């Protein structure tokens, strides 16, 4: 770090830079202890390990591909909560066929809910969801959309699938093969 940057940083800390740094260090240590305490209950966290991994991968794909929206199929709202927890900076639409999940989704900042019918194949459910979003004007021609869903069923299946779709000029969905 250059001396000029260091001087600027110290000036930003106010009249008591050492006390400010000590306080920030105490906060960091306390935060790390809080994170480590979650390791005491692995059985609770283990339930969502695969869903969390798929959610993270979906968010990363959305960022890399410059997707306009992330669509998450969820039975209880957990998958959508995990996606939102990564703060993707991309709008998230959670799709479900359960009213209880829709109510839970109202509490998650940055997540919109959409009631859909679940088909036998996850890809059919997600394509129907994309058609609904296209008709509503939520997504448009040329947009890329990352879909996170279960398999073999999108909503009631275990969250295990990520798809990248693109809305073609004629309104068809590419990547639906």
How is this fold's topology laid out?
Layout: H1 3-12, H2 17-37, H3 42-46, H4 49-65, E1 69-73, H5 78-85, E2 92-96, H6 99-105, E3 111-115, H7 122-136, E4 144-151, E5 158-167, E6 173-174
Parallel strand pairs: 1-2, 1-4, 2-3
Antiparallel strand pairs: 4-5, 5-6
Helix pairs in contact: 4-5
Task: Give an overview of the whole structure.
The chain has 177 residues and is of the alpha/beta class. Helices cover 47% and strands 20% of the residues. It has 7 helices and 6 strands, in the order H-H-H-H-E-H-E-H-E-H-E-E-E. Strands 3-2-1-4-5-6 form a 6-stranded mixed sheet, sandwiched between helices.
* Strand composition percent: 15-25%
The major beta sheet can be summarized as: 6 strands, mixed
Q: What CATH first level of the largest domain would be assigned?
A: Alpha Beta
Placed side by side, the strands forming the largest sheet appear as: 3-2-1-4-5-6
Count of DSSP-assigned helices = 7
For the secondary structure, the number of strands is 6
- How large, in whole angstroms, is the Cα Rg? 21 Å
Short description:
By secondary structure, this protein is an alpha/beta fold.
